[in-house]
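Intended use. Records like the one below are meant for learning the mapping from a protein sequence to its folded structure. Do not use them to infer anything beyond what is encoded.
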Amino acid sequence: MSVRALRIAAGLETASLVILIVNLLTVHAKAITTFVGPVHGMCYVAVIGAASLVPRASSGARRLACVPAVGGLLALRRLHSDVRHPAPGAQEG
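Structure written out for the chain above:
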């Protein structure tokens, strides 16, 4: 369930960032910024929290989740990489 929450939060974080950038480069509507800005911030915090709750997440994946804007996507990539190529001596679970 935690990986699913991370996946959802990372997608929402990325989508909200795209909306904010498109708004900035086009109409720069204050209403969009006022609504989507806090949503983006909450998604960023949710990504960090969700990455912290994934039992098999390495410390590298947890640290990557703290990168603004793309941290969730980087953490998911690291989780996927850790599953496919576990570190030497790591327990299989």
